[in-house]
Amino acid sequence: MSRRTLLGRTATHAAEWSRRGRAVPVYAAIRALGRDGVRALVERCCDHARELVHGIGALPDVEVLSEPGINQGLVRFRSADGDHDRRTDEVIADPGRRRDLVQRFSTLLAWAAMNDLELAFSTADLAAELALTHFRTGVAVSLKADGSQVTEADRAVEQLLRDTLSAARPGDAFLGEEFGELGESDRVWILDPIDGTSFFTRGDPNWRIHLALEINGIIELAVVAAPALQRTWWATRGGGAYESAPSGTRRLHVSTTATLATAVLDALGNDPRLPTARPPATPLPLVELVRGELDAFLVERYYKWDHAPWILLVEEAGGRFTNPTGTNTGDQGGGLYSNTNLHPELLKALNYPS
User: Fold this and answer.
1) How many CB atoms lie within 10 A of CB 233?
2) Nearest to 53 by CA among 82, 87, 80
3) Bridge partners for 84 per DSSP
4) Which of 16, 94, 199, 261 has its CA 20 to 30 A from that of 24?
5) Do residues 334 and 305 lie in contact, with contact meaning Cβ atoms separated by under 8 Å?
6) What are the strands, taking DSSP E only, across 22-120?
7) Rounded CA gap, 216 and 266, in Å?
8) In angstroms, rounded to a whole number, what is the distance separating the alpha carbons of residues 119 and 29?
9) How far, in Å, are 37, 46, 123 from residue 24 at the CA level?
10) CA distance 50 to 92
11) Do the Cβ atoms of 327 and 296 come closer than 8 Å?
């Protein structure tokens, strides 16, 4: 997606945001970003920002921008011969073009002012809109080197996720299923643009969009959106886990089952270590787990982008996750999800380090 398309999408989304009664916090963004942050945002995200500045060849150090100034088209910048204020009508003659540039720049500032959870929600909304368009029209399927399915929608959605998040957080790094790693930072967005591509390609609504934010190696935020089901599951470290639907939002809690004899266990593949485990009864066993409808789920496969958001969701719902090395990271090919009561006994049965 081009930057121009991205800016158009964010402007449209901001307009919808405003219709819902939420102001676009331009001034708060400027104060939060500071001079260097605003300049970095302009340099990285606004192809035509130079049109807002009169008479210099390089982008300025933005010193002060106030909300009235933005609305009136006023740009203050510092150049070699001092500070200057310029109205955009001195630079851009066409009023429509002028309004468009100011609106888009303001929208980018608004994205940058959001906290991480707000940004994840808004980004997931944009990704859901794009993914649903592909889902309704249908997509061609090809195979990756590992034999897994991929579509144009997978790549387009991940590109949108990266573009939107990097516009708001220029210093963050990324790890995604389709495009791998990008950048180096203590903050890493982990992305699976369409988890459940096989569902997606055959018109089954049980596919998801995964976003997780890892800070200093710890997952701090998770959003899993299922646009075709009109459901979102989300969690923040220390803030609990939740499910949102058109009917409202509820906090999630795992079960309290304490004995294996009465437990409901699901596992991918037959596993002699858990003889009472059944194959998953639904396409979304981890949703059942965080709702308290399932007691444990063993899944010793897949990748970090498959597991990262669910690890936090399960932990914040009161459960536990352990991988085969005995830690709770999602980069060891999966592991055991369960409620807290059953976890020690199940780890022993699986011969996992405890």
Assistant:
1) 24
2) 87
3) 77
4) 94
5) no
6) 61-62, 74-79, 82-87
7) 32
8) 13
9) 18, 18, 15
10) 11
11) no
Residue 214's φ and ψ, nearest 5 degrees, are: -105, 125
Q: How far are the Cα atoms of 20, 157, 205, 245, 326 from residue 229, in angstroms, in the given order?
A: 22, 18, 6, 9, 34
Residue type at 277 in one-letter notation: A
Residue range(s) in the chain whose domain bears CATH number 3.30.540.10: 116-229
- 303 φψ region: left (φ > 0), alpha (ψ -120 to 50), beta (else): beta
Dist CA 17 CA 71 (whole Å): 18
DSSP per residue, 288-324: HHHHTS-SEEEE----HHHHHHHHHHHHHTTEEEE-T
CA 27 vs. chain centroid, Å, equals: 25
Of 172, 221, 161, 170, the residue nearest 33 (C-alpha):
170
Structure-token match 């409202």, residue found: 248
- Residue 167: per-residue pLDDT: 79
pLDDT value at residue 142 = 87
Neighbours of 57 (CB within 10 A): 6
260-350 domain in CATH 3.40.190.80? yes
Largest CA distance in the chain: 80
Please list the rounded mean pLDDT of every run of 10 residues in the chain (354 residues). Answer: 38 41 44 58 48 36 36 46 49 53 61 82 94 93 83 94 88 95 97 95 96 97 98 97 96 97 95 94 96 98 97 98 97 97 97 92
DSSP reduced 3-state for 278: strand
- Residue range(s) in the chain whose domain bears CATH number 3.40.190.80: 260-350
Q: Which of the listed CATH numbers 3.40.47.10, 3.30.1360.40, 3.40.50.1400, 3.30.540.10 matches domain 116-229? A: 3.30.540.10
Task: Note whether 105 and 8 are within 8 A (CB).
Answer: no
Cross-strand pairs, 87:
74
Task: Identify the sign of the CA torsion 288, 339, 224, 246.
Answer: positive
Per-residue burial over 281-297, b if 16 or more Cβ lie within 10 Å, else e, is eeebbbbbbbbbebbbb
